[in-house]
Amino acid sequence: MANYLFHSADSRGKANHGWLESRHTFSFGSYFDPQRTSFGTLRVLNDDHVAAGMGFGTHSHDNMEIISIPLQGDLEHRDSMGNAEVIRNGDIQVMSAGTGITHSEYNKSKEHPVKFLQIWVLPNQRNVEPRYDQLTLNPQDRLNTFQQVISPSPEDDGAWLHQDAWFSLAKFEDGMEKTYHVKGEGTGIYMFNLSGHITVDGHSLHDRDGLAITDTNEVTVKAVTEAEFLLMEVAMR
């Protein structure tokens, strides 16, 4: 029997650094909840708003798969691998930090804030060679269906990372209902509703609500209103 754990949007951790406002689904920085340290290998899900012209200065990571999904505006990225890219709304970025990288991310706009999801997934291999990947997605490919944007294989749709993880973005019209079938073994599903109102196996999610689901082979999502959401299937080990 499937297990469900609901995380309301207002139950998330909060951080306000002036230039950065962030909401943390899982323990991060000064926010710590022993009941919310991760969901399997999904370690970080931060909902970040960065003020115009501001950003994260050069800092380091290792042995982590890091995903950035801009929701509004553009991020300017530079790293120790020599990448200097702009990540726009409609793009997805994946970095395998592996043996260690340094990077910075800034709001490219001097006038408008940038909003993006920062997601960390624990890898299934340690000390891999650092790697950068960035794709431009077609938003039409998620209309009333699950657009796969992350997988464990470079041969599959979307970007890839070092873990049994499949991420899908979706935009459902009012009344649309569709079932997602689990792709891996020993995985769980974390649903993060971006906007609108959906039900997941009858559980109601509004803007920025989350739902952790384990012990299931499928979930059925129904749009009560027009809605956009991110479905993350990740290894639980």
From TrEMBL:
Residues holding Fe cation: 59, 61, 103, 105
Cofactor note: Binds 1 Fe cation per subunit.
Domain Quercetin 2,3-dioxygenase C-terminal cupin: 149-234
Cofactor: Fe cation
Molecular function terms, GO-annotated: metal ion binding
Keyword flag Ribonucleoprotein: no
UniProt superkingdom: Bacteria
Keywords tagged on the record: Iron, Metal-binding
Gene3D superfamilies: Jelly Rolls
Metal-binding keyword on record: yes
Family according to the record: Belongs to the pirin family.
Protein name, UniProt field: Pirin N-terminal domain-containing protein
Organism: Sphingobacterium paludis
